[in-house]
Write a structure and sequence with these properties.
heterodimer, A: five-stranded parallel β-sheet, B: alpha/beta, Rossmann fold, 40% helix
């Protein structure tokens, strides 16, 4: 018996507007562009894909299942710009066949910089999912599947039963991603590893006519899945939701592929679909998996270099998190929200110089002409945040005798 | 493959990017085994006493004093021929007139020179910024007094080159910029060999909308008469298509490069300064956008104090620009160095924290490559050919002074930005090579000549 476990990542950042060093107003985000992109992606992907998956769930009477990780920042955008998308996710939630995962509300890299901020964002996200979809998330995924042993420990303390990470070759060392694993010193927590070959067959190679397996049919793919039978429990297919209709356009046949996949998988009789929590409950951990160093699902390096690969990125992140205590001490909900929206990992991804000259996936959805422009823009915004903090600090602090104010003091009524 | 190449400046007798480009390209061709005969109108030296002295053969050196043919030692497959012409790059018709007046009318063929002496000239101090052979001189465009002398000189050059051409064999003619187009067309007609013209700049780049009709006509004739036209960027290709109506399918883009073998003296004494230096280096002419540089400087100084703006170069706008700086109230923050060469250029690069090229219209722009190879971050205008090939530089529209200031401030304020630009930029510039440019030219020749007798 082999299970197929689908998890789709649903996320869009609040992109910054062009913010010059001469700008002074605290309006950082490009409302127009964010709304425009969200509507475009929703019409090409979220709405049609939700509709198809809902139909499949109905058609197979609960035998087709999947999971989503929807960030807090995109949920805010659904509410602001396109409530219809929110309704359609709620409808999916009501079928009982869809699981919602937990992650950081702001799709942030906070785990690397502040455990306190990280935990707060995870709890914010959990509460939001509960409120919207009536589910308490049991399985956690970190931003860009960034993971190591320490994260597992923290997630275990936060009460999760499972955690999702990349099935990178260099941590598996020849073992199969199709089993469950357990992190060292966390006997309760189970690791679900992404089967990156089969995931990427759909997410990256599906529409590639130069690929020798093109065109990929549901039957062919279901056959590959079935080969796991007897040599693993579960095939974890983790990908961006935008794969359906946006990364792979509708004319590649991606929607037809998805429509036919449940039938093709289920025809093998013993194979089925499970959500991550069901997988965690159904199968034991096969082995311990030791991941002392950070891994992620990005690029071929599977490391942090897409967000922390150059001096600008580490500088921007460092300067941002340096403000944490001051921001929180301000108790100003607006400045806290602005600061947190700046934590979204996309802002740092835009600053990546790794493949910039070659032009590739890094340019996709990148609103900037160059990584340098994105850094300059970000730092200008951060400057304004600092300015606001200073201003709040001045306004809140008790009136101080001003250095040059000796005469003024003399006039103060007693 | 034998190429008859027509140019009008060559190091050390250079005043701008054209000579540098001809040097790099010819050297790379020579290394590829392409035979090149390079015909130059030699400046007549009598006006510049220092030059005459320095170029004079050393006693005992093995010069063939009676020949106008010479070779340089790093150019194995290149022969040079010079003509007794007063043509110089970036010269205005009126400036030309001045040159001719003071020139001895000797038609004697120039003496050949050796590399050592050439090198000596390069580092020769010269403070005479107004002399026409310096990069300080620019086309004035409309309004200049066209006496016809320059044009008759262009024609005379064409006649003399045609005579040389009769004595030589070659497969293709390659002419650089407008002054050599009539010569190129003439030889092509006589010899029946294909003509390639190489457009390093157009009249629109030099003069904006106030074009000199006569020069425009010569350019247009060359572009339409040639079998192939090489431009130094897509930007220039577009100008040829829209302004000269040249069919796009006969234009090939060949980017310039930089000689990476050039050694830079490492900084020995890094003097600690609390002032940052932003550098403008180039001719101070309309084309180079000096007033946008000043406007951005003013904006920068509104938020930062510890910055100095250095404008190195001279040109027909220098007085206007100095006045402008004073009018803006930033005169004390802007330093004018006049025209720099040799050691002084190296020095100024070593001092600079940022190089800005705000050109209004720059067909290519080799200077940013030089700045990058000196480990200096660069801001270039989007209206430049070089912005098409560089990714690790900052780019702005020349007119967007707010954005220019925004970027200048960012580079000066954030060391990680400075260092990332510097590291990636100097690496990127190393990938540009003249041999790639030479290969592109060879492809153009091959298209014309046919497949035989090509690669050596």
């Amino acid at each position: 018996m082999a299970s197929v476990c689908f998890y789709f990542q649903v996320h869009q950042p609040f992109r910054l507007r062009r913010y010059s060093v001469f700008d002074a107003d605290p309006v950082y985000f490009d409302e127009f562009k964010n709304a425009e992109i969200l509507r475009k992606v929703a019409n090409k992907c979220y709405l049609p894909a939700n509709y198809i998956l809902l139909e499949l769930i109905k058609q197979f009477g609960g035998h087709f299942k999947c999971a989503y990780s929807i960030t807090g920042v995109i949920l805010e955008q659904f509410e602001q710009y396109y409530p219809k998308v929110m309704d359609s996710f709620k409808e999916l939630a009501q079928t009982g066949c869809v699981e919602f995962l937990a992650e950081t509300y702001y799709h942030s890299l906070s785990f690397l910089y502040s455990r306190e901020e990280f935990s707060e964002q995870v709890n914010l996200q959990r509460a939001r999912i509960k409120q919207l979809f009536g589910q308490e998330p049991k399985v956690f995924r970190n931003t860009e599947l960034i993971y190591n042993n320490e994260l597992a420990q923290l997630i275990s303390q936060l009460g999760f039963k499972g955690i999702i990470c990349e099935g990178a070759d260099h941590i598996l060392l020849g073992r199969s991603p199709n089993f469950l694993y357990r992190p060292p010193q966390c006997s309760e927590l189970k690791l679900l590893l992404k089967n990156y070959r089969l995931s990427d067959d759909v997410a990256f190679r599906f529409g590639n006519r130069d690929w020798k397996e093109w065109p990929l049919t549901a039957e062919k793919f279901a056959n590959w899945v079935n080969q796991v039978n007897g040599n693993g429990y579960v095939v974890n297919l983790f990908m961006d939701y935008e794969t359906l209709g946006e990364h792979q356009w509708a004319d590649t046949g991606i929607f037809d592929f998805i429509k036919h996949l449940p039938q093709a998988v289920l025809q093998y009789g013993t194979n089925d679909f499970k959500t991550p929590t069901e997988v965690v409950n159904a199968y034991p951990a096969a082995d311990q998996l030791d991941v002392p160093h950070m891994i992620s699902w990005a690029d071929t390096e599977r490391d942090l270099s897409a967000w922390l690969g150059n001096a600008m990125q580490s500088n921007a992140l460092h300067e941002l998190y340096k403000l944490e205590s001051q921001i929180k001490a301000s108790s100003d909900p607006q400045i806290i929200a602005d600061w947190r929206k700046l934590q979204t990992s996309d802002h740092f991804y835009y600053m990546c110089t790794k493949y910039f000259a070659d032009g590739d996936v890094h340019k996709y959805f990148n609103p900037y002409e160059s990584p340098y422009d994105s850094y300059i823009n970000f730092m200008n915004v951060l400057d304004n945040i600092r300015y606001r903090l200073r201003k709040i600090g001045r306004d809140n602090s008790p009136p101080q005798p001003i250095a040059l104010a000796a005469p003024v003091k003399a006039y103060r009524p007693r | 493959m034998k190429v008859l190449m027509l140019g009008w400046e060559f190091p050390p007798f250079i005043s701008g990017g054209l000579g540098t480009a001809c040097y790099g390209l010819t050297k790379a061709m020579s290394e590829m085994g392409i035979e090149v005969l390079f015909v130059l109108p030699k400046p007549i030296h009598s006006e510049y006493a220092t030059h005459v002295k320095l170029v004079a053969p050393k006693p005992g050196s093995s010069l063939s004093s009676s020949s106008d043919v010479f070779a340089l030692k790093e150019f194995r497959n290149v022969r040079f021929r010079t003509l007794p012409s007063a043509l110089q790059a970036y010269q205005t018709p009126s400036a030309y007139k001045k040159t001719v007046k003071t020139t001895t009318t000797s038609t004697e063929v120039e003496k050949s020179v050796k590399v050592e002496e050439l090198a000596a000239v390069e580092s020769a101090p010269d403070s005479n910024v107004s002399s026409p052979s310096k990069s300080g001189e620019a086309f004035v465009g409309a309004g200049a007094n066209y006496a016809g002398d320059l044009y008759s000189e262009v024609e005379r050059y064409a006649r003399l080159v045609s005579q040389i051409a009769g004595q030589e064999t070659f497969d293709v003619i390659h002419a650089h910029d407008w002054m050599t187009y009539p010569a190129g067309l003439g030889i092509a007609a006589i010899s029946g060999k294909p003509l390639v013209i190489h457009v390093h700049s157009t009249e629109f780049d030099r003069s904006g909308e106030h074009v000199n009709q006569q020069i425009y006509d010569i350019e247009r004739q060359g572009m339409h008469g040639a079998q192939r036209v090489i431009t130094v960027s897509f930007l220039t290709k577009k100008i040829l298509a829209t302004r000269y109506n040249v069919p796009a399918d006969k234009i090939r883009v060949v980017y310039n490069a930089i000689d990476n073998n050039h050694k830079h003296v490492p900084t020995h004494t890094q003097i600690q300064r609390d002032e940052k230096i932003v550098l403008f280096l180039g001719r101070i002419t309309m084309q180079k956008g000096p007033e946008y540089f000043l406007a951005a400087a003013k904006k920068v100084l509104e938020v930062m104090d510890n910055v100095r703006f250095v404008m190195a170069g001279s040109g027909d706008m220098i007085r206007r620009v100095i006045e402008l700086a004073a009018e803006m109230g930033i005169g004390h923050k802007v330093l004018f160095t006049g025209f720099l060469r040799g050691e002084d250029v190296e020095k100024i690069y070593r001092m600079a924290d940022l190089y800005v090229m705000p050109s209004v219209s720059e067909p290519f722009g080799i200077a940013p490559l030089e700045a990058l190879s000196h480990d200096i971050p660069v801001i270039v205008s989007k209206q430049s050919g070089v912005s098409e090939i560089l990714t690790h530089v900052l780019k702005v529209d020349f007119w967007d002074i707010n954005e220019m200031a925004n970027k200048i401030i960012a580079v000066l304020k954030h060391p990680p930005l400075h260092s990332t630009l510097k590291e990636h930029g100097s690496f990127e510039v190393k990938k540009l090579s003249w041999s790639d440019a030479a290969k592109c030219c060879l492809n153009v020749y091959n298209e014309l000549v046919g497949e035989k007798a090509l690669l050596v």
